[in-house]
Records
---
Amino acid sequence: MDEVLKFLQDNSPFFLATVDGDVPKVRPFGLAMEFEGKLYFGTNNKKSVYQQLQVNPKIEISTASKTGEWLRLKGKAVFNTTPQIKQAALDVVPMLKNVYSVEDSLFELFYIEDAEATLKDMKGAAKTITF
């Protein structure tokens, strides 16, 4: 998981895909962090991504480096928002404090369950990581 997290942080924004009915939806994300051994992401519960994940929690994330390596990460989003996790997220990305607080009711955090990541390079070398 550490290698996946570093790749996401080094190549932000990364792109998270959901489905809305039968239509794929992709949007940029920037918050990725480890908390208690899980890979967490954050969103706002008023956004469509939150609503889509409530209906179908399956997600896929992708990003690429400037040198041609790329990552694809898939799994199930599990929401687990606590004051401790919110504080950790605000510490990891301090600019989020301009939008969210530990006490607000908008900021939601989720981790990926049954995660499978594929790291590849332009030469075709691939590595699969599950966590």
---
Amino acid sequence: MDSDEAITVLVVDGHQTFAELLGHALAGQPDLRWVGHARTGAEALSLAAELRPDVIVLDPELSDADGIAIAELIRVRQPDSRVVILTASEEQSLVRRATTAGAAGFLSKNGALGDVLNALRTAHRGSMTVSTDILARLLRSTTPATAPRGGVANGGLTVRENEVLQLMAAGLDARTVARRLGISVHTCRGYQKAVLAKLGAHSQLEAVAIATRRGLLRPDPR
């Protein structure tokens, strides 16, 4: 692949050694190109605006800022740049906050390097990746037996809301879902909000976890 066509990646991590190791791994991939390293939230915002990378790998535990807040700012300012959260933390709240902020992936630093590299490719295509261990923890944290306030036990979804849910489960963002269904992004986001409300979820990932526990998803939502 031509280097100009490779997926550009900005690494945001306060640990120099880790960032260099990840950068070295990226250099060995013909379809991925490391374009920079930011150590702080301030540097991340500056380099993201300057380099306009396709994907940003971000550690949420930065020395000068809340990494999730930085991810949200980047997504607002540069909607074409996808953010993948890569963390050593096991705090469940981080997953929910990251997906609410629009992150395209949430992976553990303890996972396999190949999974990280594939997550970058998946993010660039407009889909979401979540580490299986993180998803398993989220599944365990949801309670399927009782209907959430404002919903019913089976979710009470309309046909269109169910279609949106299936594509959310495939990790697709609002723009891609809207394109698949032939509706506007604004309308799609309205359906997504309705799905979250009926399932009692606060993020796309949590909605998918709850739907999985309740058997609302088809085997292959793609």
